[in-house]
Amino acid sequence: MDAGEVKKVLTGKIGLQIGDQKIIYKEKEKGNGEYLDKCGVKDRSKLILMEDPSSIERRYIEMRKNARIQTAYQVISNVSMEVDKLVEQVFAIEKSILNGVKVPEIQITTLIEMLMRQAIKLDNISAEENVSTQKYLQSKRVQWCVETLDVLKISNPLIKPVVVAAKWETFDPSPTTSRWEFF
């Protein structure tokens, strides 16, 4: 039996993959293709099984990478929900302006600033391969909203404010009114 076959048997029992195991006999590591009987291993010989230190490091690096990806997805999800709310406000402003209602400029400017904060959050995400598409899509949504608001901001002052004026009736004093009543 070679060292690789021993590792296969142990994989099911201890849960370590073959590449993560090291078999040591007489202070020397035995490779997967080495036959143990040719190395002097006999019945009741003592073998040492170790977890390969480089596999621990690889798993740790993979775990950290997955954690970064999960964090990035969470940030993108939060940004997406916030942008959904802001998109509704963009549509409301657009509808108002298209219907001829003048919108206060501060409202448009504040909305642009809120969108830019979301863009900054997206820029701070390190784009791993599988996260970059989501990041790109959200960035495009934010960009579209800001561009739409910029156009609306330009067309907003062109709307004439609606002025409601009432024509007041005036009454002439009647001839029966005495002079002292005018004071």
Order of helices and strands: HEEEHHH
How many E-type strands? 3
Instruction: Bin the strand percentage.
Output: 5-15%
Distance between the termini: 125 Å
What order do the strands of the largest sheet run in, or round the barrel if closed?
A: 2-1-3
**Mean pLDDT over the full residue set:** 82
CATH architecture of the largest domain: Up-down Bundle
The CATH topology of the largest domain is: Methane Monooxygenase Hydroxylase, Chain G, domain 1
Q: Tally the helices: what do you get? A: 4
The figure for the number of domains is 2
Give the overall shape, derived from the CA principal axes: rod-shaped
What is the CATH domain class of the largest domain?
Mainly Alpha
> What's the story with the biggest beta sheet?
3 strands, antiparallel
Uncertain runs? none
Radius of gyration (CA) equals 38 Å
Structural class: mainly alpha
Q: Helix share of residues? A: 55-70%
CATH superfamily caption of the largest domain: BAG domain
Provide an overview of this structure.
There is one protein chain. With 183 residues, the chain is mainly α. It has two domains: 3-51, Ubiquitin-like (UB roll); 58-158, Methane Monooxygenase Hydroxylase, Chain G, domain 1. Helices cover 57% and strands 7% of the residues. It has four helices and three strands; from the N terminus they run H-E-E-E-H-H-H. The protein has helices spanning 3-14, 53-98, 105-123, 129-155, and strands at 21-25, 28-30, 48-51. It has a three-stranded antiparallel beta sheet with strand order 2-1-3. The N and C termini lie far apart (125 Å). The mean pLDDT is 82.
